[in-house]
Amino acid sequence: MKVLSILAFASTAMGLALPIGFYNRDEFLAKRAVDADFQPTGEEYVLKTQLVSNNDTSKAKFNDLYLTAFHTGAGTNDAVFTSSKGDAATAFLNETTDGSFQEFDFGTEFPWSLQIGYEPYTAWAPVTIDAGVPQAGDGFFTFTPSGLTFNVSQFDGWLVCDWWHTTPQLFWKTGVTYYNSSLPTSCADVYLVKESL
To answer: Which spans in 40-132 are helix H?
Structure first.
């Protein structure tokens, strides 16, 4: 009986997994069940980088990139970028009584949410796109003239870096400053702006 429980859990966890590598919007939306319970709320769009400062030409490679997901485990993905709009994650803002959550439609029966990682005593921390909706009270998202922001006092902007994967990865700046608070040369400050599908 215990073996059956383990197998049931494993198959459920596997059902939450995106294929290894990158997400492709058209592929996932084509697979969505017509009678799926989940439907996105509000306007759908993609998120694109815009350099905070265009003065440094060495950072140009981080401009005009689209947010997508890089599979890291069952129900978890790192938030990364692609130059292809067709591979961008379809986003929507889910406004609830607990706040607005940045969610994504991957053509599954449930939403995927932008999750802000917590790393104590660090100047920046990872961002993931995970299955389900976030906990109430984890902070919420809103759009300002500069694009998507996370409404917690520690939020100091978005950072895109050549990091763990073979594609640029999204981080958030925590507002923690140290005597040497310069960014690595493989990173750039960016805004995340909305672009129509």
So the answer is: none
Residue 122 has pLDDT above 50, yes or no: yes
Arithmetic mean of pLDDT, 86-99: 89
Kindly state the helix (H) or strand (E) to which residue 127 belongs, with its residue range. Answer: strand 124-131
Query: Is this structure's pTM higher than 0.90?
Result: no
More confident residue, 70 or 7: 70
Query: What CA–CA distance (Å, rounded) separates 104 from 117?
Result: 17
Closest CA to 158 of 100, 79, 99, 84: 79
Q: Which two tokens stand for residue 168?
A: 């640029």
Indicate the residue type of 126: P
- How far, in Å, CA of 108 to CA of 129, rounded? 14
Regarding beta strands 147-150 and 99-105, do their DSSP bridges make them parallel or antiparallel, or are they unpaired?
unpaired
Instruction: Copy the structure tokens of residue 61.
Output: 């490679």
CA dist 37 and 108 (Å) reads 9
Q: Is the pLDDT of residue 170 over 90?
A: yes
Burial 40-60 (b: 16+ CB within 10 A, else e): eeeeebbbbbbbbeeeeeebe
pLDDT value of residue 119: 83
